[in-house]
């Protein structure tokens, strides 16, 4: 997940809108807490790479969901803090 933003920067609009977006959305729904945390950590920067693409509503829905307690509870003091500042 940590490289998806860099890959997206050099990918075509079609690849970004389909394959990479699908990969990220699947990771946001993954059963593993660590996969979800990495996906949420890279969500905002990934959305920025879609500047000239048709951005998926699913991505924005997940971005807004970052303020939800179920997402915030993925981390604690010793881990990545996903809370909006």
Radius of gyration: 13 Å
What kind of sheet is the major sheet? none
Structural domains: how many? 1
Q: What share of residues are in beta strands?
A: under 5%
How far is it from the N-terminal to the C-terminal residue, by CA?
23 Å
Tell me the structural class. Answer: mainly alpha
Number of strands: 0
Question: Total helix count?
Answer: 5
Q: Can you tell me the residue ranges where pLDDT is under 50 for at least 5 consecutive residues?
A: none
H-E order? HHHHH
Shape: globular
Mean pLDDT over all positions: 84
In which range does the helix fraction lie? 55-70%
Characterise the protein shown here.
The chain is an all-alpha fold and 85 residues long. The chain has one domain (4-71). The protein is built from five helices and no strands. It has helices spanning 4-9, 13-28, 33-48, 57-65, 69-72. Helix 2 (13-28) packs antiparallel against helix 3 (33-48) and helix 3 packs across helix 4 (57-65). The radius of gyration is 13 Å and the shape is globular. 18% of the residues are buried. The mean pLDDT is 84.
């Amino acid at each position: 997940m940590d490289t998806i933003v860099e890959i997206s920067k050099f990918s075509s609009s079609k690849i970004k809108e389909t394959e990479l977006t699908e990969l990220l959305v699947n990771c946001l729904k993954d059963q593993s807490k660590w996969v979800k945390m990495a996906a949420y950590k890279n969500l905002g920067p990934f959305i920025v790479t879609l500047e000239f693409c048709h951005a998926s509503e699913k991505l924005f829905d997940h971005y807004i969901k970052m303020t939800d307690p179920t997402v915030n509870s993925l981390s604690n003091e010793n881990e990545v803090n996903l809370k909006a500042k």
